[in-house]
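target protein:
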Amino acid sequence: MSGLLVTGTSSDAGKSLVVTGLCRALSRRGLSVAPYKAQNMSNHSMVCRDGAEIGRAQYLQAQAAGVEATSAMNPVLLKPGSDRRAHVVVRGRPAGTLMAGEYATGRAHLAQAAFAAFEELAAEHDVVVCEGAGSPAEINLRAGDYVNLGLAQRFSLPTVLVGDIDRGGVLAALYGTWALVSDADRPLLAAYLINKFRGDASVLEPGLAEITRRTGMPSLGVLPWLQDVWLDSEDSLSMGAWGDPDDGVPSERRLSVAVVRLPRTSNGTDVDALAAEPGVDVRVTVDADAVREADLVVLPGSRATTSDLAWLRRTGLADVVIDRASRGAPVLGICGGYQMLLDQIVDEGVEGDAAEGSESASPTTVAGLGLLPGRVVFHEDKVLARPSGTWRGHPVEGYEIHHGVVAPSGGEDFPGGHAVGEVRGSIWHGTLECDDYRRALLADVAATTGARWTAVARAAPFAARREGMIDILADALERHADVDAIIDLTRENR
């Protein structure tokens, strides 16, 4: 088996970015590379060409590696439906639920699926670049672990520890991680990498030398803070982070978009392409005034439609959205957000609904916002698809991940849904990445609101921007990290 595990001193240390950059850097060198994450806990997912559902990060890493994404790259996906329950996806298909009390002890069957997927990838590729989850120092979970050092032990994978210096205390985090793991696991920690550094890296040298002296782990380098790099994340915290306020478009020609931060937002990556568009200011918010005054309001996907709709009503934001519709101000609902705009939501006993569902275990009917005629019925069977169509002559494609089936009872056709006036809804995710469609939609919003925004002719396509960011990551690794040493590590367990 040829591979390595990239893990971190904490969540958001930069594991996903490092794996993405490594996949591109190793691919450039002619190696056949596959990304892999044994278990991902995220409500941001993607549908592969074969209809399998995996985490967005692994789908992007496959793109970086230049290979087709498959379910083996993220064999276990946990999608939190509440604070105590997660819906399980195994090899791209729904596989029940996992309660909080079962997390440490009830995952043996998931480990088996994860290990089999790794073996499958290892047999097909030169190198498998594995991404850990959280931190390997979560010793309370070690007994049932199969995504961090449990995986590394199973396949004798050298492990690279990524430390986030921007948080502060990175040297303590590196040493503390090494000290906390068991004597049996410690030899797997082969090297470390500092991430998100700003300034002159030479000031770190005494500290890095001491970490190496105490732990035996060599430093692989110090990666700089990459201000302009935002890739598909595993949570909604960086939703809309692709924006550039210094994009050269003057204030009087800008368009404002308010994205409602729902408690259970899913696939928040839908709005990244809006944020990347020059002259478009995206604010992810729960502020009523921002929702009221924006040129466009987006209700994004939700992991728990009826629960988030109830929250929308409690906060008063539902009334703000209804008021916008009454005065002809643009509203866009995507998947769960689309479902909220309908007259009625019916859950036929789908527990928590594995895509955007209610919290009830028995059939329930909930009134929607009543802004689009029709209703949605949640069924047990999950829809996973890669649809396409057109809007006003522009090609549109997206992906579907949902249990709720919408039945419109009026309105006009809209890609993946329907519309009434300036209220539009689509069950499709990812459509806003289609450049011509996105710009036509924004131009329509600008015309409706009187904004002076127009598309910038020189603006790069969104797909090209994403590719460019992957290359920036690979370039940073080549420039600031010892990629040859990393390749040598992968060969040690062949």
Observations:
- DSSP finds 14 helices and 27 strands in the chain.
- Residues 351-360 have pLDDT under 50 and may be disordered.
- The longest helix spans residues 462-480.
- Residues 335 and 427 are 4 Å apart (CA to CA).
